[in-house]
Sequence to fold (333 residues):
Amino acid sequence: MGKEPDIDVSQRATEEAAEWVALLDSEDCTDAEREEFERWHAADPRNALAYHRAKAIWRDSNAVIRSSMALSEAARHALQYPPKPSGLRRWWLPAASLAAIGAAAVFLFVPFAPQEPPAGTQYATAAGDQRGIALADGSNLTLDTQTVVVERYSPGERRVDLLRGQAQFEVQGNPERPFVVHALGGTVTAIGTRFQVRVEGAGATVTLQEGQVHVAASSANGPARVASLQPGQTLRFDADGTLGSVQNADLRAVQGWMEGKLYVDNWRLQDFVAELNRYSDTKLRIDDPALAEERISGVFQTRNRDSLGRLLAQGWGIQSRQVAVNEILLTRQ
Fold:
């Protein structure tokens, strides 16, 4: 079992993120400072999430104000934090503008309210289909059956909304333009990596294959909870902001759908049928509640119903009978 992630974005991370955004945007930012930023960014998932938020605020200000003090003040106000000093070097406005800082922070706070994302481009797959999509930045998506995504790229963020189903994301690295998958109110932020996200019921599951991602689950009643994944790890978050524990993933099973295979380990028959039904318009049905609880294990082709019938009959004594054009009934032999 992994430890329970219960990490709130701290005041310190919020303030330092604001200063890093301003520093990295300046012309005299040194290579040493950029290296220090990379270490800070990677050191804590709270830092990564705080930087992502501050970067969005900085971008949305449309260059009207370029001051870390105003940015940090606005971010503190948004998160109800009192101001505290920080060790990073500050980027102040000219003296003539200091009297306007209070008003500037209020001005900046208004655009930070959630805004409608760009309309974007929708991609979808039907039952039994899979689809590869090459995005403009060199990243690639693979959509599984019955999946819907909306690509909403903007100058400051590469956003993809996963509305239904599951997809694999192979992301080209760009620290200045993070790649963010939105699903059920949560986000998965990557710079350069390969991972999968699946929306199922009221929750979403994230599995990391390469690189690193930060997962944030937002709640209406409190701050976002954040966790980082390493390769071979997975977690689930729910639409209500609940963030599950980090678990080890079976990467062979995770990758199976990309190869048209379903790796099953001690599943109930009804769960196995529900998963297979995603891949075809011809649905399997079970009428016997006791049969629905039968346990199934093995490797199955997601699109070959003929071989499935033979395997179920030979291994578990389950008969497949076509009872309608698009319906197969499973019964005991």
Notes: Residues 121-252 form a domain with the Jelly Rolls fold (CATH 2.60.120.1440). The radius of gyration is 24 Å. The chain has nine helices and 19 strands. The longest helix spans residues 45-60.
